[in-house]
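User: Could you check the structure of this?
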Amino acid sequence: MFDDKDADPAAIKELEEKFDPEVRFRPLGKVAAGIAATLLFLLSCFHYYTAGFGLLREVNHRGVHLAFVLSLIFIVFAATKKGQEQLYPSSLWRPFGIPVIDWLLAIAAIAASLYVPYIFDDLAFRVGNPLPIDVIMGTVMIVVLLEATRRAMGWPLPVIAIVIMAYGLFGQYAPGVLVHPGADWRMLVNHLYLTSQGIYGLPVGVVATYVFHFVLFGVLATRIGLGRLFIDIAMAIAGRYSGGPAKVSVFSSALLGSISGSSIANTVTTGALTIPAMIRIGYQRHFAAAVEAASSTGGQITPPVMGAAAFLMIEFLGVSYSTIITAAIVPAFMHFFGVLCQVHFEAKRLGLRGLTRDELPRVGAILKRDWPTVIPLIILISILLQGFTPYLAAFYAITACIVIGLVNPLNRITWRDVLDAFILGAKYALAVGAAAATVGIIIGVVTLTGVSFKIAYMVTSTAGTWASAIAPFIPFGIMGVSTLTLLITLILTAMVCIVMGCGIPTTATYLIMVSVAAPVLGLLGVAPLVAHFFVFYYGVLADITPPVALAAYAGAGIANANPFRAGNTAFRLGMGKALVPFVFVFAPSLLIVVDDFSWFRFFLAFTGTVIGITALSAAFAGWLAGPLYRVERWLLGIAAALLVAPEVVSTSVGLVLVAAVVARQLFFSGAEPEAPDAASA
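Assistant: Sure, the predicted structure tokens are below.
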């Protein structure tokens, strides 16, 4: 059923480049490609060596990292769309096929990146009173950083950075509570360039010491066959059930996502196999694309890797890695459970079959062939759980990948493959490196102006006013003013996260929203861990939220489906991910590691959420044990909203509504209604 010819590497690469600007590299001639490959390999070697044998002094390490990342972006990313598609011959104005301006920008990036850690030697005496040369170098750094970020991931993030810098400069003209005295360019550059509160701040530090290593690990783990093992295991476990390929998509994306933080890469990698198979057994094309996209976005919230956000949380919150992955377990389960429920009900509604015994691989044969590929992942997790640093764990995991790949006769790789993996891993890390530094600009202005607390006051005041107006109309006093205020604040925050995430990668969205939105939630008594998870989950949701649902559009490209329809369906399939953050804000025990954890509140929230997600999935699909009347779908939708509110009264009412629909299905089915066409939308 899963035909290898569906997984054409060239087609997968083309789709990934089409929908993910972070891997849209320009074609290079032989000499330029050699220069880029050498620098990329050295960048990976630098991070691999320092992870195992000791990091440089903080600012030096970040400076070297930025020098490599920013200069390489000007070599491998073109300034225009035409430059991304066309290979130019070498000439006076295009040495080795790359414009002179790009070489100059690369050199400027190196100089500006290394100026602070290696040339600016009397930092303690000049911070707050920069010399003209300091301002010049800082200006160069900001310009090359914004242009590098634009090339690597488009306009949205640089535009936000420019707007926030304008606010820092002209804050005296801002309206209302947003007003501040303003800063001149000299002092703004001083704060963003010469201190650890800006470009050289925490975001770049996390990428340079954690994220890069896990990107490299993911590339190597996939190269030695761990991704294939995950897909085959998922097929052996889930393929036999109704609508088997769709369930394989959910399980394989969950497993593969545990080592990869990219929604789009997961979509095109597993989707190349699962989407054609889903279409062959009867799923509509847009639904098949949506299933893969919704499943793949779960990779960023699935332990143990969780993309970059897990390690950013470690630094921001000052908690252990085990705390973060423990907190992520239940919400990640809820996301995949929600997608699986909708896939199952859709399969039942359409009467789709599973895979036959002959079409399924054997678990024993899979493990016999690929079991060594799991060893690096086991090493990674075990070292992390022992409390060692993430980069040291990544060092040993990467080393294990290399050793196992070289000695395993069934999945043997060569030293050339290792070289290619080091080059590709560095390439994939360039965009997030630039994004982290640009987010440093945004965070720097936020700390300089104190705007986050002003925004927090505005949002909570507005939410409180609305809550006071709405509360008298809530029946039975289910929600008081304080609860409604928090709910409205969460809705506003979620909307901003989704809008921000439409044009900005998850990591950048998380960093910005933590700086701006976390203080808002903190004013309402939300614990920092809970607030961080909330904004992170809604940032991830943007990958399947129209109009810029990039993961869904990538899936639609494989399925030859309508992209907007696929995006709408993917968002519907991901509703579990949309509901669960509200649940763990009102019932933090769902994250397990919170201070006031209670088993009673945990089981109340867990049970209510599971039943609520099931009810909502049935309402969307128009099917439970059989077809549903329209009124039953509405009742299940209302029940779902009540069940995910972790209160005894609301849970009880929700259970009564679900029980009524189930009773009608089981005992009074009579003449069944037709499943509505809208159920498959």
